[in-house]
Amino acid sequence: MIKPNGNPFGAHRVIEPKGVLPQPAQKIDNSMDYMWDNEIRVNVEILNIDSASFTQLKQASGGDAEKIKQMISSIVGERGKMQNPVTGSGGMFIGTIDEVGPKLAGRGLKKGDRVASLVSLSLTPLKIEKFVDVKKDIDQVHVKAKAILFESGIYAKIPADIPTPLALAALDVAGAPAQTVRLVKPGDTVVIIGAAGKSGVLCAYEARKKAGKNGKVIGIRHSDKNLETVKELGFYDELVKLDATNALDCYNEIHKLTGGKMADLIINCVNIQNTEMASILMCRDGGTVYFFSMATSFTKAALGAEGVGKDINMIIGNGYCKNHADITLDILRESPALRKMYEKIYT
Q: Which one of 169, 183, 271, 334 is least enclosed by Cβ atoms within 10 Å?
C-alpha cells in the first residue's frame, strides 16, 4: 500500500510530539505494511551502532550479547527507531532495496540494490524481525529487519571493490575525514583524540596529506590496542598515551610537544564523556576544535571554553558533508596499509 503526499523530511512518520522532525521525536511510526510515495523501504542486514551508543549498551549490559539484543529491541519497540535514550545517538545500516516510492523513481535505484544509509538510525523508522548476531568488538548487529529512508535521506550504493562490512564501518564515520579535508591547512599542527579508532585513523590520513611536510599530526590514544599497526601507518609524528578526561595532563603534554604554541586544530573522535576540556585546552587561541564525538556535551564545551578564557572556534560534528562517502571510500583505495588494518578488524 502506498500513501500519497509524504513529507520530504519524514514528518509524516512522527507520532509524538507532533510538529517535530523524526530525529528529535520521541516516537515514530515504524510500520512496514505500507509506505509513503516518497519513501524507500530497505531490507536491512547489518546495523552499525554508533560508538558512543554501543559503548553505553555494553557497559549497561555487562557485555552480555543477549542483553544487548534485548536493550536494542526495547528501544526500537518504544521509539520506532534505534535511538539510544542515554546518548541520543543511533548509527547506520546496510541492506538491499525492497521498494522505491513512485515519487523517487528517478533516483536510479531498483529492487535488490545494496545501499548504506548515510543518515542516523536515530531518525530512521526501523522494524527488527530477528537478531542474527552481535559483533561486540566492532559495534555491529546483524539482523533481519526493514527500514525506511525518507526523500531527504542520503545513502551510498555499496561499491563492488570494497567488502560490505568494511564499507559499512568506514561510511559510518565518513563525515569526519571529509570535514578534516576542509579544516586542515598546510603547516597546521593537528591533534586527534581517539587516534587509533576507525574515525581517528581516517582523519589522520587526510590531516597528514593536508598539513604537509611543515605540519605536525599528533595522536592521542587511551590504550595500546592496535598500537603497532597504527604506528606503522606513518600518519602521526607523535602518538602519545593519555586519558582525554584529564584535561591538565593533555594540556601539559601538547604544550611540551608544541613548544607552548598548542594546536591549530583538535579533532575529537572518542566515544566517552568529559573530554571537552582537554580538547579546548590543547587548542591555541583562534584555533578550531572539531567535536565529531557523539558523547560531546554542548553545555560543557561552551561554558568550559568561556571559563578558561579560550577564544576558539568549536564545530559540531555534522555527519554529512558533500562527497563524504566518496572521500572516505577513496582513502581505503589509496592507502593499502589502512585498508589492511580495516580488513583485519571489520571483515
A: 334
Range of the domain at 75: 2-158
Domain-embedded: residue 168: no
Q: What is the DSSP code string of 191-249?
A: EEESTTSHHHHHHHHHHHHHH-TT-EEEEEESS-TTHHHHHHH---SEEEE--TT-HHH
How far is C-alpha 326 from the chain's CA centre?
15
Give phi and psi for 270, each to the nearest 5.
-85, 165
Measured between alpha carbons, how far is 234 from 346 in angstroms, rounded to an integer? 21
Are 219 and 204 contacting, i.e. CB atoms less than 8 angstroms apart?
A: yes
Shared-domain flag, residues 249 and 316:
yes
Residues 78 and 196 in one domain: no
Please tell me the total count of domains within the chain: 2
- CATH number where 321 lies: 3.90.180.10
Regarding whether 200 and 125 lie in a shared domain, the answer is no
Q: Are 91 and 49 in contact (CB under 8 A)?
A: yes
Residue ranges with strand state E in the chain: 2-3, 14-16, 27-28, 35-36, 40-49, 91-100, 114-117, 126-135, 140-149, 155-157, 189-193, 216-221, 238-241, 263-268, 283-291, 313-316
Give the model confidence (pLDDT) of 87-126 as tens digits.
999 999 999 999 999 999 888 899 999 999 999 999 999 9
Q: Is residue 257 part of a domain?
A: yes
Nearest-angstrom CA–CA distance, 249 and 240: 11
- Would you say 210 and 265 are in contact if contact means Cβ atoms under 8 Å apart? no
Contact 102, 2 (CB under 8 A): yes
Question: Quick one: 206 and 127 in the same domain?
Answer: no
Digit-coded pLDDT (tens) for 276-332: 999 999 999 999 999 998 789 999 999 999 999 999 999 998 878 888 999 999 999
Task: Using alpha carbons, select from 259, 308, 276, 257 the residue that is nearest to residue 193.
Answer: 276
Rounded CA-CA distance 304/310 in Å is 9
Residues 200 and 315 in one domain: yes
Shared domain for 100 and 12, answered yes or no, is: yes
Q: In the structure grid, which three cell numbers stand for residue 3, read together?
A: 500513501
